[in-house]
Design goal:
single chain, eight-stranded mixed sheet, 11 helices, 8 strands, globular
């Protein structure tokens, strides 16, 4: 990535679903003075995962000359974006992102999501395929949540809402593969700072949406030649076997497995992630 600093910005959108009023969506905007956005190179929108922040992507952004607009979006209840109320579904999440696209007057976009953000991106791609040129899902799951998944999410929500340094260490161990914590203390410190600033009670609707997600594989099948699945081989949150199962159901999709990497490739292996994104998103 170039040394160009992003512009912190926000936009107001109507609340999706049965919500009322307006919501703020915060984002970081990397933009050149003479962008070449167009049908072949639309803006790239990045969605981070639960307990992350927009800068999660900063070390693996493609296009060092910034010929394209890059938008790092803060998920609901994270980093300056308004929380959403319950009930909130994955289709509502897709509506949230569609309102953001319309507010910024983006004709089309390339969409990249991580974990929870990948599930929201998959829902958006399934519902608004005409607005997405390429879709990249990092450490995501396209299937319906199993009863065990829902139980694990319920337990995780309780931990997130009570949060302690012991909980942070436990989550840290599950999120990051190998010896990442030892190799990257500054990034771990940034993650702890970002999670420390969260109003964690605002995350309940998001966890409930993830637990109630639909199986999007059938709806994404016609889109799969424009889809890339990127996963860490050592992922403890969403095991690589699930990514392999998703790839088997979508044979026209591109599948890349990063060896020695856990749930957060953009932090653990930014160079390899950037190369994979470049392959996926280069016109």
């Amino acid at each position: 990535m170039s040394n160009t600093s992003p512009r912190a910005a926000s936009v107001r959108i109507a609340a999706p679903g049965r919500g009322a009023g307006a919501l703020t969506v915060a984002y970081l905007d990397y933009r050149t003075a003479t962008p070449s956005d167009g049908p072949a190179s639309p803006p790239v929108v990045f969605l981070h995962g639960m307990l992350m922040w927009p800068g999660f992507w900063a070390n693996c952004l493609i296009d060092p000359d910034l010929r394209r607009r890059v938008l790092l979006v803060a998920q609901p209840g994270h980093a300056g974006s308004s929380p959403v109320g319950s009930p909130f579904s994955m289709d509502d999440w897709a509506g949230w992102l569609e309102r953001f696209r319309c507010a910024l007057q983006l004709e089309r976009l390339d969409l990249v999501g991580h974990s929870m953000g990948a599930m929201a991106a998959a829902a958006y791609g399934a519902l608004h395929a005409d607005k997405v040129r390429r879709l990249v899902l990092v450490s995501g799951d396209l299937g319906r949540a199993s009863p065990i998944d829902r139980l694990a999410l319920s337990l995780s929500l309780g931990m997130i809402e009570r949060w302690s340094s012991k909980d942070a260490s436990r989550v840290e161990g599950a999120l990051f593969g190998g010896d990442y914590a030892r190799r990257a203390p500054d990034e771990i410190a940034a993650w702890r700072e970002a999670t420390g600033r969260l109003e964690r009670r605002n995350l309940r609707p998001l966890v409930q949406a993830v637990a109630g997600r639909l199986d999007h594989r059938a709806r994404l099948a016609p889109f799969s030649n424009r889809l890339t699945l990127l996963h860490g081989a050592q992922d403890q949150i969403i095991p690589a076997q699930r990514a392999l199962a998703n790839a088997a159901r979508l044979p026209d999709a591109t599948f890349e497995l990063l060896q020695g990497v856990g749930h957060c490739p953009p932090l653990e292996a930014p160079r390899d992630t950037a190369k994979a994104l470049e392959r996926a998103l280069t016109p």
